[in-house]
Design a protein that fits this description.
Elements (H helix, E strand, L loop, with lengths): L2 H14 L15 H15 L12 H19 L5 H6 L2 H69 L1 H13 L4 H59 L5 H67 L5 H20 L5 H13 L9 H26 L6
Helix pairs in contact: 1-5, 2-3, 2-5, 8-11, 10-11
InterPro entries: Clusterin-associated_protein-1
Subcellular location: Cell projection, Cilium
GO cellular component, one term: microtubule organizing center
Length: 392
C-alpha cells in the first residue's frame, strides 16, 4: 500500500458521494467491515438493481460475499479483482478498490464535461439569438429612417404634380418637329463616333507601345545573352599573370612558414636565455652569500683566537684588530669593487704576518690557522667566481 493510492481512493470516494468519512488510518489494520460496506456501496452505485447478500458474520459468508462481488464486476463491468487481497481487507485491498472507484470517477467526470458542454452550447445559442435580434433592431431602425425620408420626398413630388401635369399635357399636345429631332440625333451620333475614334486611337497607341516594349525586351535579351557568353569566355581564359601570381603566392607561403618557425625558435631561445641568466644570477648570489658567511666566520675565529691568546701578544693582536677594522671601514667607504679584488686584498692581508712571528708559540699557532682559513676562502671564491654569470 502506498500513501498515494490511499489518498486517491479517499478523494475519489468523497467525490462519488460516499456518506461515511474514510480516513487514511482505517486500512493500517485489516478492516473487513469497512471493505464490505464500500464494495456493496460501489456495486449499488454501478447497478442499483443488483441483489448481493450483505451478511458477513461468518467466514463462509465473507468468502461468498467476496466471490459474488468479484463475479458481478467481472461480468458486468469487465473489472478483474484479486479476491485474496480483498479478503485481507488492508492496504492491499485499496488497490483493488481503486479499480472500481476509478471507473465510476472517470464516468462521473465525463458526464460532468458533457453537461458543461451542453450548458455552454445553450449559452452560446442564447448569445447568438440575442446578437441576431440586435442586428434586426439596427436594420429596422435604418429602414424606418429611409421610409421617413422617402415619404417626405414623395410628398414634395406629389405637391408639384399640378404644375407637372400641365407641362406634360402641353408637351403631348404639341406636334413633333422632325427636323429638330433629326438634328439632335445627328449631333448625338457624331459625339458617339468621336468617342469611338478616340477609343480606337488609344487602342492603337497601346498596340504601338506594346510593340516598342517587346522590341526593347528582345534587345535586352540579346544584350544579356551576349554578356553571358562574354563572361563564359573570360572565365574559360586563364589570365597571363596567373602563373606568376600562384608562384609568388607559394613563395610567400613558404616564407611565412619559415618566419613562423624562426619566430618560435627565437622565442624559445630567448626563454632559455632568460632561464640561464636567472640560474647564473642565483648561483652567483648564493656564492656571494656563502663567501660572506665564511668571511664572518673567519672574523669570529680570529677574534676568538685573539681573545684566547697570551697577555704578551695582546698588544700585537689589538693592533692587528685595529688594522683590520680600519681596513673594513676603508672597504665600506670606498667604491664597490669586485669580489675577486676584495678577496685578493683579504688574502694578502691574511698572508702578511701581523708581527714578528717568533715571539711566542700561541702567536705562531694563530698565524698558521689564519693562513689556512684564508687559503680555503680564496680557493672557494676563485672556483665560484670562475663559474659565475658572464653578464655580472
Amino acid at each position: 500500500m502506498s500513501f498515494r493510492d490511499l489518498r486517491n481512493f479517499t478523494e475519489m470516494m468523497r467525490a462519488l458521494g460516499y456518506p461515511r468519512h474514510i480516513s487514511m488510518e482505517n486500512f493500517r489494520t485489516p478492516n473487513f467491515g469497512l471493505v464490505s460496506e464500500v464494495l456493496l456501496w460501489l456495486v449499488k452505485r454501478y447497478e442499483p438493481q443488483t441483489d448481493i447478500p450483505s451478511d458477513v458474520e461468518t467466514e463462509q459468508d465473507r468468502v461468498f460475499f467476496i466471490k459474488a462481488i468479484a463475479q458481478f464486476l467481472a461480468t458486468k463491468a469487465h473489472i478483474k479483482l484479486n479476491t485474496k487481497k480483498l479478503y485481507q481487507a488492508d492496504g492491499y485491498a485499496v488497490k483493488e478498490l481503486l479499480k472500481i472507484t476509478s471507473v465510476l470517477y472517470n464516468a462521473m467526470k465525463t458526464k460532468g464535461m458533457e453537461d458543461s458542454k451542453i450548458g455552454e452550447e445553450d449559452v452560446n445559442k442564447f448569445k447568438f439569438d440575442l446578437g441576431s435580434k440586435i442586428a434586426d433592431l439596427k436594420a429596422a431602425r435604418q429602414l424606418a429612417s429611409e421610409i421617413t425620408s422617402r415619404g417626405a420626398s414623395l410628398y414634395e413630388l406629389l405637391g408639384k404634380e399640378v404644375e407637372l401635369r400641365k407641362l406634360r399635357t402641353e408637351a403631348i399636345a404639341r406636334p413633333l418637329e422632325i427636323n429638330e429631332t433629326e438634328k439632335v440625333m445627328r449631333i448625338a451620333i457624331k459625339d458617339i463616333l468621336a468617342q469611338v475614334q478616340k477609343t480606337k486611337d488609344l487602342l492603337n497607341n497601346v498596340a504601338s507601345d506594346e510593340a516598342n516594349l517587346e522590341a526593347k525586351i528582345e534587345k535586352r535579351k540579346l544584350e544579356l545573352e551576349r554578356n553571358r557568353k562574354r563572361l563564359q569566355t573570360l572565365q574559360s581564359v586563364r589570365p597571363a599573370f596567373m602563373d606568376e601570381y600562384e608562384k609568388i603566392e607559394e613563395e610567400l607561403q613558404k616564407q611565412y612558414d619559415i618566419y613562423l618557425e624562426k619566430f618560435r625558435n627565437l622565442a624559445y631561445l630567448e626563454q632559455q636565455l632568460e632561464d640561464h641568466h636567472r640560474m647564473e644570477q642565483e648561483r652567483f648570489e648564493e656564492a656571494e652569500n656563502t663567501l660572506r658567511l665564511m668571511q664572518n666566520k673567519l672574523k669570529e675565529e680570529e677574534k676568538r683566537l685573539l681573545r684566547s691568546g697570551s697577555n704578551d701578544d695582546s698588544d700585537i693582536d689589538i693592533q692587528e684588530d685595529d688594522e683590520s677594522d680600519s681596513e673594513l671601514e676603508e672597504r665600506r667607504l670606498s667604491k664597490p669593487r669586485t669580489a675577486m679584488e676584495v678577496l685578493m686584498q683579504g688574502t694578502a692581508a691574511a698572508f702578511a704576518c701581523p708581527a714578528p712571528c717568533a715571539r711566542s708559540q700561541n702567536t705562531a699557532l694563530l698565524c698558521i690557522r689564519i693562513q689556512h682559513l684564508n687559503c680555503s676562502v680564496v680557493t672557494f671564491a676563485a672556483n665560484t667566481l670562475t663559474c659565475g654569470p658572464k653578464n655580472s
